[in-house]
Structure formats: C-alpha cells, structure tokens
C-alpha cells in the first residue's frame, strides 16, 4: 500500500478552500461570531466600503478587529500542500 498516496486521497476531501476565492486559504482567519473561515485578504476585500462587516456565507455581522488567525487551518493547508508536492 502506498501510504502517501492514501494520505493524499484523504486530504483531498478536507475542506481547505476559501468560499470567496475558491483557492486554498492564504492567511486563514475565523469569524468569531459564526466560525466561518476565509483568507484574510478575501474578507478584507469583501468588507471594504461596507458600513457593516458581514460574513459572505451567512451574513452574520462581525467586527474586523475580532478576526482571529485560524492557525489550525493554516497548518492543515501547509500540510496538504506539502503532501501534494510529494505526490507530484
Ligand atoms: Zn480566499
Ligand atoms: Zn458565517
């Protein structure tokens, strides 16, 4: 059994894409109010020029200053990218 390929298959199912840009998260941040995660640049661009910051997915309001880096997600994205590199 090729365990690396197996790992790659498992990781391919993990949701690691930002719903704004549909790419792997860059600098993922989590919204404190609804726990949805987005790339920091995506959520910043989405909220620019709006009176009230809201989640692009569920419209829950949030404070830009309350954005928390989602380190677990960032680590997972790096791991997945690393494994996919190895599989190439
Ligand atoms: Zn994004
Ligand atoms: Zn949300």
TrEMBL record:
Pfam families the UniProt entry points to: zf-RING_UBOX
Spans through the membrane: none
Gene3D superfamilies xref list: Zinc/RING finger domain, C3HC4 (zinc finger)
Domain of life: Eukaryota
Molecular function via GO: zinc ion binding
Family matches, as InterPro entries: TRIM/RBCC, Znf-RING_euk, Znf_RING, Znf_RING/FYVE/PHD, Znf_RING_CS
SMART domains, sorted: RING
Residues annotated as domain RING-type: 18-59
Keywords in alphabetical order: Metal-binding, Zinc, Zinc-finger
Tagged with keyword Chloroplast: no
Protein name (database record): RING-type domain-containing protein
């Amino acid at each position: 059994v090729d365990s690396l390929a197996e790992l790659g298959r498992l990781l391919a199912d993990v949701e690691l894409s930002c719903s704004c840009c549909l790419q792997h998260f860059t600098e993922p941040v989590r919204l404190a109010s609804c726990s949805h995660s987005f790339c920091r640049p995506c959520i910043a661009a989405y909220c620019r020029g709006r009176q009230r910051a809201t989640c692009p997915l569920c419209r829950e309001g949030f404070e830009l200053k309350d954005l928390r880096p989602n380190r677990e997600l960032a680590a997972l994205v790096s791991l997945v990218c690393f494994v996919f590199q190895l599989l190439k």
